[in-house]
Amino acid sequence: MTVPVLITLDFTPEHIARLQAISDELVIRQVRTRTPEGVAEALNQYPDTEVLYAIRLPTAWRSEWGVRWIQLHSAGVDHIPLDVIPPHVRITNASGIHAVCMAEHAFGMILALRRRLTDMMFAKPWHAWPPDRWALYARPLLRGQTMGILGYGAIGREIGRLAKAFGMRVLAYKRNPAQRADHTFVLPGTGDPEGRFPDAWFGPGELFRLLEESHVVVNTLPATRETEHLLNADAFRHMPPGALFVNIGRGRTVDETALVDALRTGALGGAALDVFEQEPLPAHHPLWSLDNVIISPHVSAAFPEYDDFAVALFAENLRRYLQEEPLLNEVNRQHGY
């Protein structure tokens, strides 16, 4: 018995060798492409593929393709035509492989906002210390403040772990707050698999309660029908004056017009944004002109070891697939993630 595996990413020979070493049953083929059309052509070339590794998927599905399981190279699935893929095909995502990177990125932006590090960078051309430096840069500590984390999955749990290291109170928001453990892919020593760090849990219908208590809000939510513009004018009004807002989830979860208003009026103290409703962010967008906003170009998940971590996850899932064990990070199509 053999299991044909088609990899469409640019994995190195060392990566392929690591995967091949899992079992002699695996027949691994590699066709490098990142487009839906390219993946379709690769499947036409190898229609007996049982396991597909890809970042993009065809927009139409052919009955002669033998795919039974798709491992995605990304955590988000909002760019995937889920309605096209036959229901018998299992889909797993890459959730967890970039949790550390994204949590570090979020905290880097939080510290830059809170300590006004960008102001210090802009002041360098003056070649002098400001006379009012204490008034400018004496900033409230994170320690003792409250962080609200929207989406307590792999990324949110690593952010929660770091927040606890900073001495912060942690509030967690998720679809089912009664389900506190999360046994998806996690790097050893990171995250919060058992859900031990939050001081309180909140579910749908309790968002405003969480926001009212949060000095810093970090959004990691996926883009679904339920989360679209969840962060709107009403939500921002429920945040404490001067609160900080960070978005490393999806741009569609935020009403950007309402966010701009809250930042202009001072209702929010600042925002750090890595994702936007339209990407790249248009040059005329008012967010570019706000001094209390940090913009990063959707790179919070970018780090040199991305493929190494992705292969580690794929290797574990391949082992589980061959042993008929539950796969890590299986996508719930109804939920959209």
Please tell me how large the radius of gyration is: 22 Å
Strand order of the largest sheet: 8-7-6-9-10-11-12
What is the element string, with H for helices and E for strands? EHEHEEEHHHEHEEHEHEHEEH
Total domains: 2
The largest β sheet comes out as: 7 strands, parallel
Any guess at the CATH architecture of the largest domain?
3-Layer(aba) Sandwich
Number of strands: 12
The span between the termini is 32 Å
Question: Looking at CATH, which topology of the largest domain would you report?
Answer: Rossmann fold
- Which CATH C-level class of the largest domain is it? Alpha Beta
Please state the overall shape, judged from the principal axes of the Cα atoms.
elongated
| Binned strand content | 15-25%
Provide the residue-averaged pLDDT. 97
Summed up, the helix count is: 10
Tell me the name of the CATH homologous superfamily of the largest domain.
NAD(P)-binding Rossmann-like Domain
Low-confidence stretches at least 5 residues in length (pLDDT < 50)? none
* Share of helical residues: 25-40%
Structural overview:
There is one protein chain. The protein is α/β, with parallel strands linked by helices and 337 residues long. It folds into 2 domains: 3-97 and 304-322, Rossmann fold (3-Layer(aba) Sandwich), CATH 3.40.50.720; 99-295, 3-Layer(aba) Sandwich (Rossmann fold). It contains 10 helices and 12 strands. The chain has helices at residues 13-20, 36-45, 99-114, 117-123, 133-137, 154-165, 207-213, 233-237, 256-265, 306-322; strands at 3-7, 26-30, 51-54, 69-72, 90-92, 146-150, 169-173, 200-202, 216-219, 243-247, 268-273, 293-295. Strand 6 (146-150), helix 6 (154-165) and strand 7 (169-173) form a beta-alpha-beta unit. The chain is elongated.
